[in-house]
Amino acid sequence: MRIGLLTDGGYPYADGESRLWCDRLVRGLPQHEFDLYALSRSAHQEKLGWVSLPPQVGRVRTAPLWSAPHTAPRRTTDGSVPQDEPGGCLTRFVTGSGGAYGRRERRRFTAHLTALATAVSASGADGPTHPRGGAGAGRTAADPSVPFGEGLYGLAELAREHGGLPTALRSESALRVLESACRARGTGRTVQRATVTDHLAFAAELARLLLPFSLDWYTTESLGGVDLCHAASGGTAALPGLLAKRFFGVPLLVTEHGLPLRTHYLSATDAPFGAPVRALLANFHALLAAEVYCQATVVTPGNSHVRRWQQRCGADTAKLRTVYPGMETGRFAQVGGGDSAGPDTLVWVGRVEPAKDLVTLLNAFAEVHRAEPGARLRILGAPVEGAEGAAYLAHCRVLAEELFPGTTAERHGDGDGGGDARGTEEPGAVESPVSFEEIGGAGADDLAGAYAAGGVVVLSSVVEGFPISLVEAMFCGRATVSTDVGAVVEVIGGTGLVVPPRDTPALAEACLALLRDPERRARLGEAARARALELFTVEQNLAAFRSLYRELTAGHPPSPRGTAPAAVRPEAGTPRTGGAPDASAPRPFAVPPEEYVRTGRPRTDPAERRPAGRTPAWAVVPAPEKVGAAAAAGAGDGDA
Question: What are phi and psi of 252, to 5 degrees?
Fold first, then answer.
């Protein structure tokens, strides 16, 4: 089976999002052939290069989402650019692929852009920017997502036939269309206040977002020849998949562990645009999300938090199938009860940033320390890159000194030796019960050692998606105290205590409850490890997508490479699993060419080189809606 894996700022780039998950998916399904179609986010990302790719990757096509697309120029038989095309791909892109639009093409462009701009301007005018019921069955012409889809695909067909779309979107005609749409009756007051400068800024952003329309990926030798398009996220990454379905009928599978739409909302305030442009972009991304969910055959959210957002954006519930992201278990063997720092130690592991709310954690620990003077708190992690992370870590250090005056903070991992380095102690000062450390120092040389450094693992975040640190603690058999954000309650599933975010007394009370009850800690730790091994392993994730691939391609004609239909193909018996992830971690190499085709291996059918066998059935994950609510106090079955 030939899979077209679509990414936006992700795999195969060395610093891409979902890089590790995509690599495990590709390596864990060696019976399939993967073609990668990747959009890059920046010149820096391209400079870092790709990760090393497994043999089952057949072709990699890349294009920048931050500049002009690299449309391949026409070439003669000897591979040279002909004389009538002196500027190559960049000239063809800027001039509209050889010439300006004629009268008929201009009429088509104006009609399609008017439909799209009208939908974007009107969406959210009477409330939230999320489309209302747009992705399910029964959409009506009054739904903004209907003209949005008509305009979107009309522009895509025009770009495929004649090129020149980025230039047209920056033309005076496009500005007149946008101005008319923004001032039409029924649009919101924010959009109506848009100025010429706002129209220019939105047109430039629209041209950038629709750059995938100008790529040469939509042929029978590229996306038209795959058996299935699998988008590693929604939003812009799924645009090539929408066109592959539109032009060739290729099924589309969309996986979302995070939410591009939510990310856009959170980052909109930092964008260098005025309120009208931010409103238009928010409406565009919401309508695009609805269209992706409408056209996708199956959508696989990574947890119920993502699932709820998708339903809010109009995704049909019948299309949603929760598939938890898999994690390697080798480096997270059960650490047992021999706490290296004593059972009275609380451990926090993660990246230091404001969203983790270490301020509430420190204030809660002050209450814990007053009740249990022997308790300690170890904060293990480095600040996020940038000035904000360093400033927040410095603020937390100052707060710890204020909460515990007359003590000296202990520092681990400084210097080349990785040992302890203490500052000059004042006379009569004692060691602080709070320490800020980096993983790799004394007592926490790796992640498993970090979670083994205490009896209880704490998560104090106010914003969280899928809480990876909690899953790691569960693999280590640790009892946890967490705030009720994101997918925390779903992940914990009754094996830890959950409290409201920013609730200092509740967080302190939950920590004290577990510190004072070693039997309860041990019981919850055992249950947490069992739950993690059941739901959050790489094997579970691969089994789910192996089954989905067979299901989605059962009625789709095979790709033109002579492979057998997916419904009758023999599958590999057991997915490949590795040991410690560091041993098999992909390594970056030099920047590759725009199109990379792996050669030197026979393109034989997997049936000729692997024995036939039955694939284990996909283990159905319990519906997230059945997960219990936040924690209730009490022991035994009352833990949530």
Answer: -120, 125
